[in-house]
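Fold Annotation — chain and its backbone
Next Lines — sequence and tokenised fold

***
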Amino acid sequence: MSTTVNSLGQNQWGPGARSDAFIPDQLIASNSPLPVTDDITIASGQTLKRGAILGRQSLKSVAAVAASGNTGNGTLVVSLASAAEVGAYSLTATSATEFTLKDPNGNEVATVTAGTAYSGNQLVLTLTAGATAFVAGDVFTITVTAAAGTYVLSVRTATDGSQYPSAVLVDDADASAGAVVAGGYFQAAVNVNRITYDDSWTVDDLKAELRGKGIFLRDSLSATPV
């Protein structure tokens, strides 16, 4: 009686006369250094495969929104400085060109002039007048959000901290319906041919970024245990 060989990977044995071939994924390239894992939270909205190169959303983020009733149609560009507080700042016009900046506690921080860059220890602002001038009472809300602490596929152009790759996903993770807890490798020798990563990265740059964190990307010629 002949048997059928099924390449099913890490499958369970079932009854019947058959032979199953185990096909390892070969993500781990060597037992040196010894792989070290820890639980991580994968941010909502992602579906990631084992071997994905991840970064942690470790930095505060900021967003500015103009009030719907504003008369002026100028624009505001804002970034964070070292002492930025979590919460909602307000930037309120006192004239066509002068604005008062208040922190989330309602304390006046500075006077900002349209057309002149402002750089403080909390926020860095550039307010540009539009075709319709601002009037007193026009306001922007600037919201600073705390670091999420969750992991996402590392993108080199990100600004939330995930631009720094720091972990390799242990198993497939489906966070499409909400954040999920998964496992991450924080120390390991990893087969570079079995990872997945964002196109903003090159393999050489990932090697350099991860090496100092105890994660070593190796190809088939460098994966021999040492």
